[in-house]
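Hi R.,

Here are the chain sequences for the assembly we discussed:
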Amino acid sequence: MLIRRLAVIGVGLIGGSLALALREAGAVGEVVGCGRGRPNLDKAVELGVIDRYSHDVGEAVEGADMVFLAVPLGAMAQAFEAMRGHLAPDAVITDGGSTKGSVVEDAIRAFGEAPPNLVPGHPIAGTEHSGVEAAFPTLYRNRRVILTPLSKTDPGALARVDAMWRLCGAEVTHMEVEHHDEVLAATSHLPHMLAFSLVDALAQMKENDEIFRYAAGGFRDFTRIASSSPVMWRDICLANRKALGMMLDCFAEELTDLARILREGDGDRLLEIFERAKAARDRFIDGV
Amino acid sequence: MLIRRLAVIGVGLIGGSLALALREAGAVGEVVGCGRGRPNLDKAVELGVIDRYSHDVGEAVEGADMVFLAVPLGAMAQAFEAMRGHLAPDAVITDGGSTKGSVVEDAIRAFGEAPPNLVPGHPIAGTEHSGVEAAFPTLYRNRRVILTPLSKTDPGALARVDAMWRLCGAEVTHMEVEHHDEVLAATSHLPHMLAFSLVDALAQMKENDEIFRYAAGGFRDFTRIASSSPVMWRDICLANRKALGMMLDCFAEELTDLARILREGDGDRLLEIFERAKAARDRFIDGV
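And here is the predicted structure of the full complex:
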């Protein structure tokens, strides 16, 4: 059995689905949950996601050989602090946070340096639902998981986390922390920022109800991500503020250029941009 | 019968669907098509969309009491020029262009002034397909059509175009030309510009194939409109360059502000923006 005892800190969609997938794969002995809300944890026991739980992180990680942190990014630092001194010597720590630089910084702040058994990770999966009742064992099947080991990360710890995700059906790749944060800023965090700020800008215009009334199907698709959790996205954006701030500045410049091209009536330049974009999207998105 | 003879200039999804809807409503006698491609026009006759056709606009509008222009925005000026001197005295002219200021300007340029029988219009409907084979009679059912009559527009002409769209099942509203172009710049043209330019920006980054590989579902939705026709969107953006240029400048400023808020780590401001956006989207989009 790959994991003797798994501690899941934060038992929601992400943490719960990992536990269910590992159980289905016969890869885990005991699962200990940790969280604040008793009803959610009771539900998790009832659904067979976890075997037992504690509200205390230190207690929950006691004796675990795999610790999975699935708390919001804003709660990572506190969770690392709370597990210090309670971890078993062979415990591997990994997480599901959407940014990796901030998680590594939180760990360094709590432990003095990044623990060799820490393997920062990011499963690129999710649904619009949250909470343990939304968890299901196939959430990670055929989805990508990015692991961002540090130079001092123990190869054995990395191999165990790698194996854990593969048993869930995921496709695992490794990446540098900074590179991960740049790639995700581009493909996920920036689009969310754009959707949120566009909808907000329109909502603040005069006669905004009329504006939304004439919004067609394209607008619905384009702004769907603006219906995501504001708290979660505040945390993600703050956690990745360096890479994301750079992307925002670049993109703002690009828009200013575009406004100039438009005013100059330069149809050839516009067509060139639109054609390159369509080709890229059709090739990379629909072609996959 | 509302329309004795309908001339459809540009027999594709938009023009073809109008003809089919009016036929189904028993509201039109004869339908004359006009276009450049013989195979498409032969197909239109075969499908019963039009009764006959001409490649010459002047010939096609001869004797028609309703003329519907469904050519690309870049071809409107030429179409107006070509029909001058061939229109019946009772002919009402309307169109399906996505911007209205440019169409009115094209008409003024061709006729010296905006003809009293011109009723600029914009059916907010479409699919990802094009050509007459994509046309179907219910395209406009429960969709919005915006008419933008001018101060000199004949009330009788307006009433006829209004009635025509209602017979197709559409919900018709009237708006000032400039207001239409601003509303559509906000809800349609700006989102398309953002999607095209975001995908293009990512496509030009180093290791862009890797970036797209890690794009999740949200990115797919957000950038779907970047797979739209580059030529059509070049025409639309150029035609609405004034309103759209202003929107782009405003939005670029907003992004620069957002980058600053992010760098300052102002989580409260971020949360405020995200919450306002989510509330607006949930209320206006999903609530409708």
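The first helix of chain B runs from residue 13 to 24. Chain B touches chain A through 86 residues (CB under 8 Å).

Let me know if anything looks off.

Best,
T.
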